[in-house]
Amino acid sequence: MFVDRKDAGEKLSVKLEKFKNENPIILAIPRGGIITAYETIKKFGFDWDLIIPRKIGLPQNKEIAIGAISLDETSIFNEQYISMLNIPKDYIKNEVSEQVEEIKRRLLRYKGNVDYPDVKNKTVIIIDDGIATGSTIQVAIKSIRKHDPKKIILAVPVAPKDTISILEKIVDEIICLITPEEFYAVGPYYNNFEQTTDEEVIEIVHELSREITD
């Protein structure tokens, strides 16, 4: 159980100290992931950037994912689900376009550019505040893999055991502090899991950016 994202991040940083000599780059998934990543970035002075995967939802219920997309338009889709529900190709095409534009909008707002993180030949540590089904994380990993990293580490405070079993096949290492067998949502593992605001993300990004230039 974690007090909040800051507490989870502090506990995660203990496990990530072992990568100090590898000069890794942290890729935080906003919004909540940047708060969770903050302590590791600040404590060890690791390079960092943001990565924003977005889910593609059902036409009638956007919360239910049929796929996911990343900045470079890397995608994953549940083709069986799409076929079973007869979801039109035009809908998927439009959703992909909209979500890529949303990724760009958020990146511009948060860090002022839409540049893809420089991960070539680097140890990449992806940090989020928790994982449920893992579809958006999967597309982030698939996207990063295209850009020739040395290795990919996934670090999260909490994720269900079955999701971890899927993800460990596509990354080099997973660090997860709590892996419950019975899992319903990320929120119950935090005393405070209030939604992170854009303003909080921007404030942290600005603080970390100032420390690099100081």
TrEMBL record:
One Pfam family of this protein, by short name? Pribosyltran
Q: Does the keyword Nucleotide-binding apply?
A: no
What are the residue boundaries of the Phosphoribosyltransferase domain, all occurrences included? 11-178
A GO MF annotation of the entry reads: transferase activity
Could you tell me which species this protein originates from?
Answer: Clostridium chromiireducens
- List, alphabetically, the Gene3D superfamilies matched: 3.40.50.2020, PRTase-like
The name this protein carries in UniProt is Putative phosphoribosyl transferasec
Task: Enumerate the InterPro entries for this protein.
Answer: PRTase-like, PRTase_dom
